[in-house]
Amino acid sequence: xxxxxxxxxxxxxxxxxxxxxPRLVPDVSQRRIDIVYSFxxxxxxxxxxxxxxxxxxxxxxxxxxxxxxxPAEPIVLREKQKVAGMWINADSxxxxxxxxxxxxxxxxxxxxxxxxxxxxxxxxxVDNIQLSPASGKVPDEQRRLERGLVxxxxxxxxxxxxxxxxxxxxxVLYRARIHLPARVPVGTYTAETFLLQxxxxxxxxxxxxxxxxxxxxxxxxxxxxxxxxxxxxxxxxVSLLLGWAGALLFRRLR
Length: 254
Description:
By secondary structure, this protein is an alpha+beta fold. The protein folds into 2 domains: about 20-70 and about 100-215, Immunoglobulin-like (Sandwich), CATH 2.60.40.1930; about 215-245, no CATH class. The chain has 5 helices and 12 strands. The chain has helices spanning about 1-20, 115-120, 140-155, 215-225, 230-254, and strands at about 25-30, 30-35, 40-50, 65-70, 70-85, 85-100, 100-105, 160, 165-170, 175-180, 185-195, 200-215. Strand 5 (about 70-85) and strand 6 form a beta hairpin. The protein starts with a helix and ends with a helix. Residues about 5-20 have low confidence and may be disordered.
């Protein structure tokens, strides 16, 4: 009977552990954001609850990290240097897959929540984003260019960190606000919520957010993608017409 009991315990152990693990129920204030000509940015409210088995209250402090990622895109980064009074391209690096947007909000400073290895595995923090380089640079040079790319994204408002940006009530309810800038790229975004305890990720959940162009902006974007030649020709004709109208107006004002 002992081998049978041991086998039964080994089989039931994962189920018992799963039943004792907490679960996240996240949501977001807007599942779809439309970008129109007057779009100046948006503020997302991310909220939810931590469900513990049997409805019990938490016996230890829990922390939350929320990460919003935009669709990945390839990027060619060019570094400029001033030579003989002129700015020229001195170096470049290619990246196969770079998040177009990244923002993280945590209930406490990230370095007090998880170690460097866990942060790297779950891409927690701007410095832990996996950028997928494709240029074959030496490690030191690659890291320097990666830091430059991250700095450019930060200054554009597309990469951000909000320490102490998540509020937790009674150890069960949480909420956070994350700002989306006016220049946010379109596409499908993921909002990942992680429950952290004792330096480990013990639960996670994901929601999707669609950011799309709407109205005239959507028509222009679709025309540029589907009828590139006609769109380019129309843009040139409009430029010529505006230039001719400006020159005519200037002559009349003289």
